[in-house]
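Q: Hi! First time doing this. I have a protein sequence and I read that you can turn it into a structure. Is that right? Here it is:
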Amino acid sequence: MSEIKGLYRTKNGDWRFQPSSKGLPKGAKRPAVICLETKDENAAISALMKLRGLDLAAGRPDSRRISEWAGIYLEERTRFGRHQPQTTRQMETALQAFADYLGNPFPDKVRKPDVMAFYAQLQGARTHGTVHRYLRYVRALFFWLIDQRVVGENPAARLRLPVVVQSRRDQFCSKVERDRLLLAAEENPEVQFVMMCGFFLGLRINEIVNARWGWFEEGHCLVRSDDGFRTKTGKARMVPYHSRFAAFIRSLPTGEPEAYVLRPEKKKGKAPLRWDPRVPFSAVCRACGLEWVTPHTMRHTFGSLHAMAGTPELKIRRWMGITQQTLDRHYAGLAPDDAAVSAI
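A: Yes, that's right. Below is the predicted 3D structure, encoded as structure tokens:
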């Protein structure tokens, strides 16, 4: 057994590496084992360092500062398929802000009061949700640094922070509000498609923008990772058609299976979305007096209305691709009371 955590030798003498799953969200798939294709331990360590982007000749690991380790950490996670590009950019911004605030120290010099000072500095400049996300990224970095034996403890591991109230995420449209928006969207076919997919299939905005004609089969939508696009969990999911969506999709002229439904001429660039429909979407919402509605509100409406209608939780989870924890946090309280319990 090697001293490097995760590096081990099989019965056949081959060396392999199991990336750490620390810092991943609950329920996320464990990263795959990497075969280093050698039976020599030193060669295995060199191959692993090369995969991580580490240059052994660059000096001792403890000579690197926070920003350098953050770059290595993000590069490794991106290479192993643990992050979408948008998440990597968000983490890079947060970790660079952390390094800049502390003067880019060595990782073993960072203490819990330093993290709390960073937290206090962020409070006036960022929303509560963003501040907590920044600290989650810092915590994940230090868990990884512990795995690399760069530090012995995580200064961001046990912070007592105020509970974030996700009031905006808990908002959803009633059926009347949903139908008012759908009626107003009929004047703009692109916004109409966005709203039909959001309200009746529960798709995320990036899934709607990247939807291919091949996703829409007879009776259901198969949301899957395609060329240049990856679902949030990396897994495909199937959502059955609502009767109104089935009639809507049949009324559209179809294209090639691999062609985008919306703006097929737009190619993926550096922007998070291949094409951003939020400006015309917001215009329709304002015209209906529902300025608070965002594209994600449609997905939350899909889950909320199903929970209120008594749809089995397992089906809601499968259709939305969410965990039981997320379902309990946002939708379980909306389930109708079951009077049958009094019948015994």
